[in-house]
Amino acid sequence: MIKIVTAEHYSLITSLFEEATENIKIISPFLSKKMAELLCKAALKGVECSFITRFYLQDFIDGSNTLEGLQNMLDAGVKLYALIGLHTKLYLFDSKDAIVGSANFTEGGFVRNIELSVHLEDEPAIDTLQEYFDEIVSKVGKANDGIITQNMLDDYKERCKKNNGNRAQLAGGTKVTAVIRGAALDRISRNLKENSNAVYDEIEANTKERLSDPVYSALGGKMEAASHKVLKNIILKFSGSAKRRANGNEQMPIRPFIDDGKTIFITNFSEAKKNSAKTVEEGDETFFCVHSYDKNGKSCPLIVGKGFLRKYNSNNDARDKGWVKEDESLAEYPIFCVISEAKIINAPINCGIPLKELTNTLGYKTYVHTSKEPDQYPTDRVAKAHSQQAMLALTADAKEYLDKRLEEIGKKYGWTTYKSE
Questions:
Q1: Which residue(s) pair with 260 in the sheet?
Q2: Span 20-73, pLDDT tens digits
Q3: CA–CA–CA angle 138, 139, 140 (5° rounding)
Q4: Contact between 74 and 147 (Cβ < 8 Å)
Q5: How far apart are CA 379 and CA 117, in angstroms?
Q6: Would you identify the CATH topology of the domain 234-419?
Q7: Domains of the chain by residue range
Q8: What is the DSSP letter of 334?
Q9: Which of 43, 115, 207, 334 would be 103's cystine partner, CB 3.0–4.6 Å?
Q10: Closest CA relative to residue 176, chosen from 252, 64, 94
Q11: What is the pLDDT of residues 361-376, one digit of tens each?
Q12: Residue 226 — φ and ψ, nearest 5°?
């Protein structure tokens, strides 16, 4: 028998949980603690339970998934799996019932949202769905990070705790995190695992789904406010050059300019790198890297701070503003983007993070373009990838590393902050 289900998801799902005696198999990107209790209760009765979900850190920060619910399920003996790029919703009970459709395994999906699902009962297609689920479990179980373990849960708990404590490090909204874990079974999901920009696009594409899901309300959150803002890029922005290195014994200079009566701070590009400036989007997170000298007097790029940029526009030319008279370097680097806000270590440039430290630590995972072709980028080649570049796109791993290191340096030296009007 095949039934169309629109308004009675919750009563249907609870009855199927109560009736199941052998196994329950569920695929859902999101989860709430209250609904997780149904799986825990079934598992503790001896029903074999398996659950496949997404394991994106941002989902837990937003309340779209729950670490507490997964923890309770793991403690109850539910088998937990993580799959990158997951959007499927499938619910299997013994070999008798299946629900396929748009409902997520949350209170929103089964109580409040307008969802449409198909309930199959004693249909031959259920065997095919069982095989589909089992095949995914087989592949996910063999993949890296495919099985959700206690260590993975503990890691995310710590990350969420730090995120909640650091949301206001810079003004302008909280930042989205591209940290994801789980099995990557196809080209698209592998790209998500390696390419932070692809993760941001994935999160942006699912924003409406999360905002329309009353699970936020069920977990104490506000429906009208997502906890993140989408960032298009994570940029490593270079200043100076091999021929024009900054003094390593001085702080990175960021001078103000008056534009239409407002004080702004800028980061510059040469005319040849104008196309790079054109790719900057509103709110792009930026790490500032200066061509300078380390404490031993050796020439190297050093990362000294971070901030956010405003979207480039065609009027961003210092020559047209008359600023070249104020700063002669703008004759060589006239194109600019406005720094919305930034914080730079209150110390000489040579106290910053040597770029080589980052590339030696992460290798091909440092930049987005090198992460796509790991076989083509041994560490020594990655170390040279910045040559002749005005800026490069960083991976989520690089951002995480730099955030941690800058936090350590900032505690030692303090910060100088800048904010454009």
A1: none
A2: 999 999 998 888 777 789 999 999 999 999 999 999 888 888 777 889 999 999
A3: 95
A4: no
A5: 50
A6: ph1033 like fold (3.10.590)
A7: 1-230, 234-419
A8: -
A9: 115
A10: 64
A11: 999 989 888 887 888 8
A12: -75, 150
